[in-house]
Amino acid sequence: MVKLDRINLSNDGLTKFFSPIEARIMQVLWENEELTTPEITEKTDIPLSSVAGTLDRLVKAGFATRKLDKGGNKVRYLYSATESMDNTANTITRKVLDSLVDTFGKVAIENFHTYHDRK
Amino acid sequence: MFSIRNEVECYVSCINDSSLLPLIGISLLLALLMFVIYFRTDRPMSRLLSLAGSQLLIISAIATVVHAMQCSRMLSIEIYLGYVAFSTAIILFLPRVYYRILIKRYDARPISEIMDWPEGFVNYLGTTATIYYYDSAIPRAFASGKAIFLSLGLLELVEKTELEAIIAHEIWHIRHNNSTPILRQLAVMSFSKNKSEDELEKLADMFAEKIVNKSALESARAKIS
Prior knowledge:
Helices cover 56% and strands 13% of the residues of chain A. Chain A has 5 helices and 2 strands, in the order αααββαα. Chain A has helices at residues 20-31, 37-44, 48-61, 85-104, 106-118, and strands at residues 64-71, 74-81.
């Protein structure tokens, strides 16, 4: 639900941090510059009824950005990813590390060192 | 001579002496609990019951106070009448100003900022109503008071004739809001569904069909649901 406080370690890939629909939408947004709503439903192959609410959530959570495109008597949303995939990965990593240090303090930091040395 | 200070003093001493204070406290606490349930629950039936329950508990608390008042009943009656006047005003008044709360909640903007024709279409139908749009990808349209709300998700999804059908549908609701019977108003106030809602939707659809056409209405419906 685009909430980093609900991380699911047993899931695969991005679905650890996003719901499956959110992950697919973000993937499509990272791969493209700007997308309209019909383009998103087409590329993700998810019906509008599921995409619409998810897009609202992604925008509210700050992962996606949308602007209004007014052409004549027709309006449409143009969606893009707020940050590149790398930057988003950065944000998520930092939040997870922060919460680990917050909870376990020294133990967490010692583990980071062990992890770092092993690499 | 009537003095509010004497009344209050008498009030406090009467209630303290009568040993009914715990009963009053429990009633008010339960009423508060009912209000909390009312605001939290999603089931229409529990909404209606909790609202009615909280009102009855408050009235029973007031009745207990009146019973406890041996020296003067004036103030209790005044408080009770004040409460009745206040709730009645809210029941009658809130539906007429509720759209302002909605405008704030949805951060809605007048549609004339992004589209020219919808306001003209409303005028053409001979109704005074303002159309607002709000930022959401979920296609939705609804009316409250003299305002129609359309989500941007709806605006980007439907064609002009389909949008006309949707606006006509909402206009029908606005026209028939003023003649809402008090019971229906209460059902709306407590956010509980009443059975004739489907019937209202059908009538609104019939109006939209007449103003625009059937195929536009049907394709709009297919797109939204």
